[in-house]
Sequence to fold (552 residues):
Amino acid sequence: MLERSREDTLRIGTPPGGSHRPGGSSRSGGSYRSDGPARPGASGGRPAGAGLGSGSPVGGVRTGRARSVSAVYGDALDGIRRRRTVPEQRYRRMAKYGFYVTLGYLMFGRAFSYVGLAPASLFIGEITIVAMFVYRPTRKVIAGLLHQFNRPGRFHILALAIVLFLAYGVLEAVRGMINGGDPVSLVKSLQLHYYTVLLAFGIWLGTTSPVFLEKLAWALAWGNAVYGVAYSAFLNKQMITLPGAAGVPLFDLGLTCSALAVLGLVAYPRKSRWTIPLALANVAVLFGHQIRAEWVSLIVALVVWCLLTRRLRRLMAGLGALLLLLVAVTAANVSLPGPADRGGSVKVGDIIGRALGPISPELAQKYTSESRAQGAAGTADFRQEWWKGIIHSSESNPTTLLFGHGYSFNLQSLAPPGKVDPTVRSPHNLFFYSLGYLGIVGLALLLLYLGTLGVLCWRVYKLTGNPIGLVILLANVVSAQFEPWLESPFGAAACYLLVGICLAPLASTGPHAREMVRYTGPPKAYHPGPPPRLPRPAASRLRRPPALARVP
Fold:
């Protein structure tokens, strides 16, 4: 009876570096194979073939009494542990760090973005960017992405848009310093520009595992179901602020957390008994949080998802089930917990009234109280007046129209007097924010950047058949039209990390073009670009099983 040697067994079970690769036994990919008898002195100084049986093995053939299964399995685990190198451990730690950072931005929002060294204005986003440049594999991704700035490739237009948008932001910051602006405030305003580097970190995270986004989606669904309910019920009433960050609450919930959690459950379904309870809990948090931009973004994302995947029947079935659920909740007179700053607990009528408030306050009063209807309508009217003020101010002279007011300008002066919080810097619309500060030139560069991301996400959809990247980008852009999302550090970081993860199939360097790169241990120098063309194997090779080591 012929069998693999212990060295071949460890090679198949654990590739060099201690990682498990379903796609191949070498760093460059391929199928599992045995390379013949083990070398003399391999496996810790044992003779060739030792470890699978007792007695005097010859050429990998067991002789004498066989060892127990537990002993053989223990030796295999010992070999795996011995082969786990320091670079591979750092690789795993960096991937876990990216996973938890992305999850933290999505779940905790503004509170998580202020984690770090507040006196030095060094927060978690800046710490992550520094770690990207310190850690060699992620630094190679950044270098490979920017390397296509002046060279053709899949990411050529994206690299061009990133460099131009970042350079324009730096010029606007210098202009603000010349006009007497505060340097710290100007650097904070640049987060919309330099947080684009996190896109490369997202690409690297997506290449670490083909199921990275699926795990993140389910972790977000569980986290939002537990923490979101607790936040809506009682955590939002706790007046506790972060140390060193005045006015920043310790407990906060991401602006698009519930919408992305529901979208993740739709995109990555599992046969689990927890699927329906998780979906109901996330929907309850979605309506209890009372953010209309989140509702609109989820509706748009679900419609586009169902159109691209041709699952309109599933969409109609889901809407019908939601309608029946709302009817049952209304009949039972059940209230959903909600934040105190948005009126506290709400009923189904309050949700309908809040949605109809900006359209028709009179119609909204039929479903909710007059104060809630007027508050919803007043918020929309105030923002529209602020947007009109930005347009009129930009048209005042050609310089302001082209290059904006600069980051040293107080955009609140264009809002209706006495109706804006002094801490609010954004008009709750990304395009009017860019028009006021950056002008038409900056707005055009922003549209170039977002449009390039959309085109790349469309290419991922045509390549893999999964439109998750496109709908995530669309949901974030829609949310940014009604909330301070992409111009804020927590929103920009979450969006760029997620979209980067979705773009990982385009950066695949292996032979499998329709899936993310398998976990391959510490990667080599990494340059995003089209995968190399590999010769198609002959039919005879496809039918031929992998050869085993033969005993002479």
Q: What stands out?
A: Residues 1-84 form one domain. The chain has two domains: 1-84, 89-507. Strands lie at 116-117, 122-123.
